[in-house]
Here is the input.
Amino acid sequence: MTEINLSKELKKFFGFDRFKGNQEAIIRNLLDGNDTFVLMPTGGGKSLCYQLPSLIMDGTAIVISPLIALMKNQVDAMRNYSEDDGVAHFINSSLSKASIDQVKCDIHSGKTKLLYVAPESLTKPEYVDFLKDENISFYAIDEAHCISEWGHDFRPEYRRIRPIINEIGTAPVIALTATATPKVQHDIQKNLGMINSKIYKSSFNRPNLYYEIRPKTKDVDRDILKFIKANEGKSGIIYCLSRRKVEELTQFLKVNGVNAAYYHAGLPSEARSSTQDDFLMEKIEVIIATIAFGMGIDKPDVRYVIHYDIPKSLEGYYQETGRAGRDGGEGVCLTFYSRKDLEKLEKFMQGKPVAEQEIGKQLLQETAAYAESSICRRKSLLHYFGEDYKEENCGNCDNCLNPKKQVEAQDLLCTVIETILDVKENFKSDYIIDILQGRETSEILAHHHEELDVFGTGKEEEKLWNAVINQALIAGYLTKDVENYGLLKVTEEGRKFYKLPKSFKIVEDKDFEDEEDEAPIHGGASCAVDPALYSMLKDLRKKMSKSLGVPPYVIFQDPSLEAMATIYPITMDELQNIPGVGAGKAKRYGKEFCELIRQHCSENEIERPEDMRVRTVANKSKQKVSIIQSIDRQVALDDIAVSKGMEFNELLDEIESIVYSGTKLNIDYFLSDIMDEDHMLDIYDYFKESETDRLDEAIEELGEDYTEDEIRLVRIKFISDMAN
Here is the structure.
């Protein structure tokens, strides 16, 4: 087989002049009859590695793939390259008996070079019996990470592939994946009986992708809308954790003029196919999909991928972000992160086998470490996949474009190494940090580790320990024993460092409870589309706050200024379409802001997107009206929450939204019932003096004598009194 001119075959069948990366070497290895393992990032050209040899070799290649949608895509693509539709087929539950008979006929006659099949279908006795008598050229296992429990999309059916191959008849096997850590790679090879296969690993670096993690606030829907409007005409995918959120977000985007559709496993297969085709044909601009359901979209010019919720693993994150910029063009990968989302994901694991929970928790910890880290996203991501990225600054992620100051952590790393060695390298990072923090947990007491010299020596560096450990892992001083639930080990380099310490500089992790630490969204779609105007609006707000003697946030909050610098309202009516600006606020403060925006637009010849209004779905505004009416009738707030089927904190969210928009509410009747007057005045005076209305700062400043609900309630009264 080696004498074949592969470049000529490539040109003949696919019209390409040259191979990408390892493609030619992979194909030659397969043509020589060898098992082949391919690790190649999304967009690297994995499909060609089995498509071309299938056309050259005698017989039919069986491609095992988990995604029905992707099978249809690839079969259509292969038929476009050939004059005969019989060249490629798929078999799955969606086909009629007549269609299946046609597929069998084409395979038997030698027409079919590629047969796509889901693992569930491959195990059916009627297909096994049929394929036993056919000439199989090779087996291709796509999305091979599904074999491993450590992979991001484990499918138990994949574990049965090797026995079925043995039953049908042995032939070379090519396993392909876009996401596999060294642990997952070993799992795949072991399970497929291809430990001695040749491994072809391409770099996982996608230089054209921009990675950013943003804090997830209650305005996340509006943030996404702003981003989409700033990237009008571009194709995008948004991933959400739940079907309900997928449908809600789609509705919100549609009422705000975005051509969007949703896609999840609960839809009939015809609806999914239709939505996918509309996206490929650009009848739809944005698809909103569940993370749990692997959407097989092979569209080269997806310009952005947004994660509404943090994925369950870095493999999932890498694969889903990998759908952006597959043509080598722009690809923005934006993720909204909140620790509460991680807690939700951990709750979902309860009830699963203990081993599965442990694996799931480890994968979540890796994701959290990536999200909260301030080091280069690329460096962090590639290290996870066993690749060493040498550059210190990639220039194309939020952390590299907004670098944090480095701090010397030589002594801290020595302390970490000493602690790990003291506990005989038998514990995970959380346990090591508990020792350094001096936490007398039941586990620490059981092992008598409170008696160690290092116990409690790291209380003052509370926020640094995670960063020290994670960056020491990347630097090669520490390693995780993945087989053993992530126990920390000291490498040979780490032992040398401990004996002869040298400079070790780190950057502190991000605090995702600190919203002021936000980096701007990339690609002209920052918090505000027009940063210059945003800065001018903040200056005007500061000037007005001094002259009126009220804190700046009482006039307009930051999200309102950001929206003004995106939408450019120049009339009072337009100003009232800005989130957080009601009629009262517009009348009281709006004139100067509209004048400033009008002047800025005129001087800079800016075309205003006048029709961009953030519209909410109707039933929400009805709910607000009902809440206002209940408060006017002096119904107790906890009773209102019960009648609306809401948690108390959810009701407070709604009331805050109402008063921040400029509507005056009098909740004195409720405050006098539940709070001591001096207590209430203390909190009120705090907000009078404070430069910020941030809840976390108020809680820290006021101390433990005041509950979060009390502080929020008095803040509502203060905003209502001062601003409305």
